[in-house]
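Troubleshooting log. The previous structure file for this entry was overwritten by mistake, so regenerating from the original sequence record. Sequence copied from the archived sheet and checked twice against the printout by T.R.
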Amino acid sequence: MSGMHLLGLLLMLGQDAAPPATAEVTQEEIAVVAAEAVESARYYANCAGWWDFLATHEREAGRPASAEQFKNLGDGAQAAALWLHGQAYSLTATEPARYKTWLPLVAPLREGAAIRAAAMAEHGKIDVVRSELQQCEALLESQQRAIDSIRNDNVQRELDASTSGDGSRPRTK
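Regenerated output below.
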């Protein structure tokens, strides 16, 4: 399933607080989409590391603005990975969870990818580095959509909290 199609399906399925169980979508299909979301999350987590590698390279080259831009791309890729894990979970879960719940799954992949990128560069495997970064660049549009969805979730939580009157802070679905 393409990343764009998966993202659209996750957005559609994730609209309800309860897990989607309708005549049009079977539990098997939901399980497949959830598994694909987790696999896609791994790609974004790895991209976060590759962007971190570029940020470090730019910082060492004396280009702090470029370094910050690549760091932000890495943070965005990590956010997309966390969001995808959260969406996969919400397809079958009945309890809400925060996006950061999946950080122990995402952070090591991010760190490992940054180290792998540095090793590839040290060994002159620039074609590998270029190829990985091109793949990450191809994910930027869907990465931004995931970030926008997180922002929309945050706004909705604030709206829900302001109208509930109990002062509690609702959790991300």
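Residues 3-164 form one domain. Archived copy saved in two places this time.
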